[in-house]
């Protein structure tokens, strides 16, 4: 199908993009990679009056280290993340997750900021950001503000970002040396969205869990951080009894809906199993 008519704008700076958002109003949409918006436009489920293409703003791309923090421009592609030595060395959980996103064609165009801003609970980045303790830089007519990933996602396709703001940068603290990581994703076929997935950062000490960060994908209206499961893990060995208990606690936090990927009970069970696998993989990579 052919989209409805729209105006096209390609600003060269963040300031120009913000000005366009203010002038064009709520019917204008920001264009990042376009993998979510353009199909909706072709089906005429979305009919924006204008597109503001962020692809020609150089300040929105790049991966740098600032102190103990990795900073990623919102228009940085998945391909760039996957092939970044800095990401591989300092944020291997992110590299692990990006490797499992869609396929090479999508990763060449898809952007981390577009994925986060779209806030689809089936997308991988929202849960990865929760597990990594990320923060988001939001720029608007009143300047910049920083919002933590936890609490940013408020519902399916809904975030704390205001209508006149643009996500410009993602800031992620570098985990301590020796931290184990894993992103376990269960899907019907290569390139598909997750039926359920679990992201884990884990630190071990003396055979027990010293600290852990967990987030779950596609088992609720937003990515889920099962804090009860996290608390139950600290100070425990990762034996079968602990794994069973923690998986159940995480499953208790799930609230998936029925879709073509399965019944809610099935997706909840897969979330528990993915968490179990992610914890064991992270343990194998952790260094006390």
Brief sketch in words of this structure:
The protein has 288 residues and is an alpha+beta fold.
The amount of beta strand, in percent, is: 25-35%
Integer-rounded radius of gyration: 19 Å
Strand order of the largest sheet: 4-5-10-6-7
CATH class of the largest domain: Alpha Beta
Description:
- By secondary structure, this protein is α+β, with helices and mostly antiparallel strands.
- It folds into 3 domains: 7-51, 2-Layer Sandwich (Uridine Diphospho-n-acetylenolpyruvylglucosamine Reductase, domain 2); 61-173, Uridine Diphospho-n-acetylenolpyruvylglucosamine Reductase, domain 3, CATH 3.30.465; 180-285, CO dehydrogenase flavoprotein, C-terminal domain (Enolase-like, domain 1), CATH 3.30.390.50.
- It is built from 11 helices and 13 strands.
- The strands form 4 sheets. The chain has a 5-stranded antiparallel sheet with strand order 4-5-10-6-7. Strands 1-3-2 form a 3-stranded parallel sheet, with helices on one face.
- α9 (227-233) packs antiparallel against α10 (240-252) and α10 crosses α11 (264-285).
- The radius of gyration is 19 Å and the shape is globular.
- The chain starts with 6 loop residues before the first strand and ends with a helix.
- The mean pLDDT is 94.
């Amino acid at each position: 199908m052919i989209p409805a008519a729209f105006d096209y704008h390609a600003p060269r700076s963040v300031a120009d993009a913000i000005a366009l958002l203010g002038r064009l109003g709520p019917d204008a949409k920001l264009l990042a990679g376009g993998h979510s918006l353009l199909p909706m436009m072709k089906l005429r489920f979305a009919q924006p009056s204008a597109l503001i293409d962020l692809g020609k703003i150089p300040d929105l791309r790049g991966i740098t280290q600032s102190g103990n923090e990795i900073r990623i421009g919102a228009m940085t592609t998945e391909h760039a993340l996957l092939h970044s030595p800095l990401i591989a060395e300092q944020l291997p959980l992110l590299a692990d997750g990006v490797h499992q996103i869609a396929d090479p064609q999508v990763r060449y165009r898809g952007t981390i900021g577009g994925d986060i801003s779209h806030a689809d609970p089936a997308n991988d980045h929202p849960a990865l950001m929760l597990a990594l303790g990320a923060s988001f830089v939001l720029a608007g007519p009143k300047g910049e503000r920083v919002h933590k990933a936890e609490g940013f996602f408020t519902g399916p396709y809904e975030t704390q970002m205001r209508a006149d703001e643009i996500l410009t940068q993602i800031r992620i603290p570098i985990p301590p040396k020796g931290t184990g990581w894993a992103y376990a994703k269960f899907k019907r076929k290569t390139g598909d969205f997750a039926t359920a997935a679990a992201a884990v950062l884990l630190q071990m000490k003396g055979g027990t869990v010293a600290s852990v960060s967990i987030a779950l994908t596609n088992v609720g209206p937003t990515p889920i951080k099962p804090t009860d499961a996290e608390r139950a893990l600290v100070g425990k060995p990762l034996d079968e009894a602990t794994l069973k208990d923690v998986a159940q606690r995480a499953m208790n936090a799930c609230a998936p809906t029925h879709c073509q990927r399965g019944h809610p009970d099935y997706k909840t069970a897969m979330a528990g199993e993915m968490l179990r696998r992610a914890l064991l993989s992270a343990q194998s990579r952790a260094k006390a």
